[in-house]
Design brief:
Blueprint lengths: L2 E7 L1 H6 L1 H13 L2 E7 L3 E6 L2 E6 L2 E2 L5 E4 L4 H9 L3 E3 L2 H7 L2 H9 L8 E5 L13 E5 L8 E4 L2 H10 L4 E6 L2 E12 L2 E9 L13 E4 L4 H13 L4 E9 L4 E7 L5 H6 L4 H13 L1
């Protein structure tokens, strides 16, 4: 049986990820799945005459069997789910993982090691810095390391708070190996692989910020730790990121809902999208 699906991107991200999208469409076709790029800016979702609607380029469209949502707007998941469309990732995963404070609250219940973290709100100023300098500030809804700030003194702390775009942010100690982290790729309940990301010129290890990547062989203890997170959530495709403590221990950092595969492809011959398309078909069957 064949399926029809959408892959939803913003116009800007679709242009930047054209090779990934083309690869995804090709892998889907090989498994008798028709996948169509939908540009978010042309998509209207809402309620008219008390009925959920979806329009594309201001015209009603036939709904797909499923949608892979590569934007961070849980309202899209909600609207499509209400119309009977399967969504990837699922709504609860999209909501929890795209707000760092919510993610930490959820993962902390699993007794997973993580760095000390304080949850803050821009409208309520902290009277004092919550940790001794230096520490790290992250916007709660930031992505790709672009809203992460290393704070080494009082003036930087003040400037950072004034420049924050998000209402919610977190403050973390930085007693870890800076410029270094591990990303674990997960599909469903399976660990697909892991990479070690390093950046010699920045405290952030992100590949897009000039970091390098190498294959990271997870040991038995690390796999048990990661599986504990996987078993708690209902993931489709995510990246789970860990900081590395000074003793080498993995410390939970975040879960990437809209995760790419560039670094995994760079360090291995794993066909992530082939496995993902199979997972999607199994979820639809």
């Amino acid at each position: 049986m064949g399926y029809n699906g959408w892959i939803i991107y913003t116009k800007k991200d679709a242009a930047e990820n054209k090779a990934y999208i083309d690869w995804f469409i090709k892998e889907a076709a090989l498994q008798n799945v028709s996948l169509t790029l939908i540009v978010r800016e042309y998509l209207n979702l809402g309620i008219i005459n008390n009925q959920r609607i979806v329009q594309y380029r201001n015209t009603s469209v036939q709904l797909p069997d499923f949608a892979v949502i590569r934007t961070i707007e849980p309202v899209i998941q909600m609207n499509l789910i209400g119309l009977g469309v399967k969504v990837f990732n699922k709504l609860n995963v999209a909501m929890l993982t795209n707000h760092k404070a919510w993610t930490y609250q959820e993962v902390s219940s699993l007794n997973i090691p993580m760095v000390d973290t304080i949850f803050c709100t821009k409208n309520i100023e902290q009277c004092y810095p919550p940790f001794p300098f230096p520490f790290v500030v992250k916007e709660a809804t930031g992505r790709s390391g672009k809203q992460v700030f290393y704070i080494s003194n009082e003036q930087e702390w003040e400037n950072c708070r004034n420049s924050l775009q998000s209402t919610d942010y977190i403050v973390q100690t930085c007693n870890v190996k800076l410029g270094c982290d591990v990303r674990v790729f997960v599909i469903g309940k399976e660990i697909i692989g892991a990479v070690l990301r390093k950046n010699e010129h920045d405290f952030r290890a992100n590949y897009k910020l000039g970091g390098t990547a190498t294959w990271y062989p997870l040991n038995y203890k690390e796999r048990i730790l990661i599986q504990k997170i996987i078993d708690h959530f209902d993931f489709d495709l995510v990246g789970i990121d860990f900081l590395i403590g000074n003793n080498g221990q993995l410390l939970f950092n975040e879960i990437e809902d809209v995760v790419g595969s560039r670094i995994l492809s760079a360090v291995s011959d794993i066909n992530l999208l082939k496995t993902y398309v199979t997972h999607i078909k199994n979820q639809l069957a």
